[in-house]
Amino acid sequence: MRNTNRTFKETILVAVLLFVFMSFLTTLLVNYFTDKEIEIRLTTITKKVETTFDTFFKTQEEAKLFYYLQLSSDKELIRIMRVAKSGTEKDLVRARAELFRYLWGFYQYLKQNKYVDQFHFVLPNNKSFLRFHQPDIYGDDLSKIRKTFVKANTEKKPQFGFELGVLASSMGFVFPLLSPEGEHLGAFEVSVGTYDIIEKIKQITPSAKVYMLIRDELVLKKVYEPFRQYFLQVPGLNGWRLEVPGRDITLLKQEDLNLLARVAKTTKLNQELATGKNFTLYTKVRGTPYEVTTIAFKEFNGDKVAAILIYINTSKQIETIEEARKVYLMVGYFFNLLASILVYLILVSRKKLLESHRELEAITSSLGGAVVVYDAYGKVFFVNKSATEILGYSKEEIMDSVFHDLVHYHTSDLEHCPIYRAVLSGEKYDAEDSFIRKDGTLVSVYVSLRPLFLDNKRVGGILNFYDIGDWKKKEEEVFQMAITDYLTGLYNRRYLETILKSAEDKANNRDITFSVIIIDIDNFKKINDTYGHNMGDKVLVAIADVLRNTLRISDIPARWGGEEFLVFLEQTNHDGAMALAERIRKGVEKTEVNGIKVTVSLGVAQHKKGDSYMETIERADMALYDAKKSGKNRVVLAQ
Q1: What is the structure's pLDDT at 300?
Q2: In angstroms, what is the C-alpha Rg of the chain?
Q3: Assign residue 460 a region: left if phi > 0, alpha if psi is -120 to 50, beta otherwise?
Q4: Do 535 and 593 touch, CB atoms closer than 8 A?
Q5: pLDDT averaged over the chain?
Q6: How far apart are the C-alpha atoms of 375 and 459, rounded to whole Å?
Q7: pLDDT at position 353, please?
């Protein structure tokens, strides 16, 4: 009986210990997977908000470039700013008034339709000339406050970035203002204000509560005293101030401030803000769940975080996940003795969050550059001067014509022309394209077509385009730099490897053979050691010249590395390759560089079907080794 009782007690103890162990394991697994699911949810939210902002600001950057193109070519604006730059104080006052009258309507258009809050002109000495958004404040020196203006005036290049000004914060788009003759007349700003950013987010997510926070030290350093009243201190937020949207205190409710204060007290918001990173937190305030996402903005100079956008949105998804945690634990404890079922239940209970990303529509509508207005059938009834200058046609030649038949007939027939089809369907169209000038030459353009409606009826379209030929040339220059060896002017190794990979595929799949010649300069180290590296560079250039003068048009030479060159010979067998290699050897042998005789050794290999291009090069390299070993200044064919 005593042994029976002992066995019973031991069994109970084992059962209890097993239950404790399995319960611990269950708790560990459930907490791990639930926390991971919450982490994935919060990370997804952060990425979605980041994407929203990136798309919005990219769209704004493109739109502001249109305004820049329009204003930088405005002759009246150039005239006024030239007077402001060099005139007397009396001239300055008159010029300010003229500019205000001249561009006031344009500013109202931007403000109402294009997410523009600040329209600001600055003289070359970085003194404010005219703030359309605050015209009574001017003449102040912005050198130490607005680095975007300083850099735009100094480098004569556009500057984009977040910046806290003397009145408010904004996403600044600052452009240098130059006359057609290149005279520097100052700079101007077309910026997206805090209020516009907040309103855009609210359009995407109407239930969101959005706040802009600015570091307290930056407000005290930059913002003029009368305007600091629009930067409120919030209890619980250490070192930050809340910027009043649009400087309209009525837009900010006390309950919003209280909510933000409670969020700061119930989460690690202050600690996360100090890191300057984007993040999302989850919390509950008086029983209501919130997901708090912050997007960090850095000052234009990138030194430190200047502002944080707080995005607070109520959600029950994480609350649902937390409720599921309790259920999983209860189910897990109940089935602790059935370990396999427990693991199965935990694994299959995990849910994947489905996230949808709303695409932001590009905001590129602008009347800058060349403008052509169509009727509903594609005939032109308005054209501006910029269009006639780009195309070389007179206004009379373009008016009443079918624009496609005049300048776009080279791409397709009228029925399949994407621009004409967009006009007929009333759809938007944005693309890079090309038009034919009157003299027959092609001009690369970026086109933006928008439908034109009257009384809700489609009556035509507005085509806005500008010449991007210079941009295309720069793209080609950058491409050439990327594939060319800077010293010899031959192709570089990276580019030739792409050619060889394509040739390998053709040779192995379609029996289109090729050969390679690898070339090494004899005694090159001795030349460098005796005459210096400058002489070595001259020898490399001389060898490159021999290759260019000897090879066929279809042959592709490249600098392979150091003193080695590689030549790709398309559709050439080993006999043809050997003959060409011998001509190269003789050509180099006849060449002198500052009185120095130069020779090369060459290895030749024809591609074998099934080999990679690197295996073909390795065979040629072995042949080169044999050429060196057998006396140099010779050509050897690979086995």
Answers
A1: 65
A2: 35
A3: left
A4: yes
A5: 81
A6: 6
A7: 30
366 or 639: which carries more pLDDT confidence? 639
Specify the pLDDT at position 324: 74
Q: Which parts of 364-429 fold into alpha helices (H)?
A: 385-391, 395-398, 403, 418-425
| CA distances in angstroms from 177 to 85, 277, 306, 338, listed in the order given | 11, 35, 27, 76
Q: 2 pLDDT exceeds 70?
A: no
Q: What is the torsion angle, in degrees rounded to the nearest 10, for the CA atoms of residue 335, residue 341, residue 342 and residue 347?
A: -150
| DSSP tag of 406 | I
Rounded Cα distance, 246 and 614, in Å: 64
Average the pLDDT over each of 141-150, 173-182, 242-251, 331-340 and give the range with the smallest value: 331-340
**DSSP letters for 175-210:** EEEE-TT--EEEEEEEEEEHHHHHHHHHHH-TT-EE
Helices 2-72 and 317-334 cross at an angle (nearest 10°) of 160
User: How confident is the model over 203-243, as pLDDT tens digits?
Assistant: 777 777 888 888 888 888 888 888 889 888 888 888 888 88
Give the Cβ contact number of residue 249 at 10 Å: 11
Which residues are catalytic, by number? 563
Question: Between helices 2-72 and 339-349, what is the axis angle to 10°?
Answer: 10
Convert the pLDDT of each residue in 512-542 to its tens digit: 899 999 999 999 999 899 899 899 999 999 9
**H or E element in which residue 303 lies:** none
Contact 365/450 with Cβ under 8 angstroms? yes
Residue for token pair 């967009």: 422
> Measuring CA to CA, which residue among 588, 595, 591, 533 is closest to residue 565?
588
Question: How many Cα atoms are found within 13 Å in the side-chain-facing hemisphere of 580?
Answer: 29
Nearest to 493 by CA among 514, 518, 474: 518
Q: Is the pLDDT of residue 594 over 70?
A: yes
User: What does DSSP assign to residue 437?
Assistant: -
Q: Find the farthest-apart pair of alpha carbons in the chain and give their distance in angstroms, rounded.
A: 119
- The pLDDT score that the predictor gives to residue 315 is 64
Q: Is residue 162 within 8 Å of 306, Cβ to Cβ?
A: yes
Read off the amino acid at residue 319. Answer: E
Are the beta carbons of 260 and 240 closer than 8 angstroms? no
Q: Which residue is listed with tokens 């975007």? A: 148
Burial-class residue 469 by CB neighbours within 10 Å (0-12, 13-18, 19+): middle
Task: Look up residue 572 and give its two tokens.
Answer: 């050439």
Confidence at residue 13, expressed as pLDDT on a 0 to 100 scale: 66
HSE-CB for 127 with a 13 A CA cutoff:
10
- For residue 368, pLDDT over 70 is answered with no
